[in-house]
Recover the amino acids of this structure.
């Protein structure tokens, strides 16, 4: 068997009402002074207030940082890090979507003062140490609670990644109740994002593509393929919400070790230039990238298709692959997501620029099962237009 490495979060605690244990977890693994990292949108949900009440009632002193922005820029990382140092916190809690969790990871690393942000971009450059870290996701999409990755916006639109096992948290605390209030469009976009993680991990050309990641990807697609539309249509469907949160986490474990590829590479310029949410950016290019990849990823897509959409089991070969691409596009439509770049008010004159920028995502493109040239990227964007 080909050698591989599989890293994941040390402790994963899952269950409805799990947030109630957060103070106990802090006392056991951190101390009594923490920073809670979140965003303005979360502040309006009541979840942050509830978390603060649990922590302070448990004897924990909390420094709140609530200025996280979507696609967080470097300035936000620096601001949060400075605040954590000034408060002398002993650990970090990230609460929210992927941006809040990504910022929390980097604050835990940088607040120690041994490394700087510019020096840790790339794969394996962050060495640690870091502060103890607890991540509490409130969307079922990024899987950031089990990935060694933080994405930062540098300059006007470019995104850079910090990738290192040091960023894996000590505890991932998953409480499906925290996702009940997600609006349908956010549920849809983050859910498609998580499904992309599973698909790309399974078919990844990475040398570290491994049987654990592939099995996790299959389990994730089985859960989310059945649950996503139900969660979009009824946000209080407890089983659907639990399955989406668990499926997102499993997909996160999969792609954390068998990395994602061209769907994400082509999605990043859309987010960077037009501030389209990451999950929606993925959804816009997903079926078109899969059709492009089908030449070389045929076997992987044949294997995956019936796990996400059981009705496809009756099809074989290329018909099943085509059905898989079509079913994912139909799921996106059924969830009410925009379907084209034109729907997002992106002018056709932008497509060459997007294709050029996608080529900068070499960290991701190297994992794609079919090589992608700038001309290929432009053709995919045109198909999505």
């Amino acid at each position: 068997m080909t050698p591989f490495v599989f890293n994941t979060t040390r402790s994963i605690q899952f269950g409805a009402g799990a947030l109630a244990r957060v103070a106990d977890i802090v006392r056991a693994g951190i101390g009594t002074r923490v920073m809670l990292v979140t965003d303005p949108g979360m502040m309006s949900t009541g979840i942050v207030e509830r978390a603060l009440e649990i922590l302070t009632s448990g004897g924990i002193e909390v420094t709140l940082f609530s200025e996280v922005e979507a696609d967080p820029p470097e300035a936000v990382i620096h601001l949060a890090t400075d605040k954590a140092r000034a408060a002398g916190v002993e650990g970090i809690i990230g609460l929210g979507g992927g941006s809040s969790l990504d910022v929390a990871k980097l604050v835990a690393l940088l607040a120690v003062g041994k490394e700087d942000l510019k020096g840790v971009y790339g794969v394996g450059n962050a060495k640690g140490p870091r502060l103890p870290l607890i991540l509490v996701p409130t969307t079922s999409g990024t899987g950031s609670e089990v990935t060694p990755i933080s994405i930062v916006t540098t300059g006007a639109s470019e995104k850079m990644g910090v990738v290192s096992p040091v960023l894996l948290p000590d505890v991932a605390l998953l409480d499906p109740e925290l996702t009940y209030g997600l609006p349908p469009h956010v549920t849809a976009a983050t859910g498609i994002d998580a499904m992309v993680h599973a698909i790309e991990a399974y078919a990844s050309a990475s040398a570290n593509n491994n049987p654990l990641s592939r099995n996790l990807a299959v389990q994730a697609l089985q859960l989310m393929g059945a649950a996503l539309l139900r969660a979009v249509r009824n946000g209080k469907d407890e089983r659907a919400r639990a399955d989406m949160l668990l499926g997102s986490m499993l997909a996160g474990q999969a792609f954390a070790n068998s990395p994602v590829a061209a769907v994400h590479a082509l999605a990043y310029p859309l987010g960077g230039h037009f501030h389209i949410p990451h999950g929606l950016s993925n959804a816009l290019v997903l079926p078109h990238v899969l059709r492009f990849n089908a030449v070389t990823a045929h076997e992987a897509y044949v294997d995956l298709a019936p796990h996400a959409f059981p009705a496809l089991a009756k099809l074989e070969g290329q018909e099943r692959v085509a059905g898989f691409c079509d079913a994912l596009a139909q799921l996106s439509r059924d969830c009410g997501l925009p379907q084209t770049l034109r729907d997002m008010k992106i002018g056709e004159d932008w497509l060459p620029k997007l294709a050029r920028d996608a080529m900068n995502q070499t960290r991701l493109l190297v994992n794609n099962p079919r090589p992608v040239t700038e001309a290929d990227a432009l053709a995919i964007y045109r198909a999505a237009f």
Notes: The mean pLDDT is 96. The first strand starts at residue 11 and ends at 14. Residues 278-308 form the longest helix (31 residues).
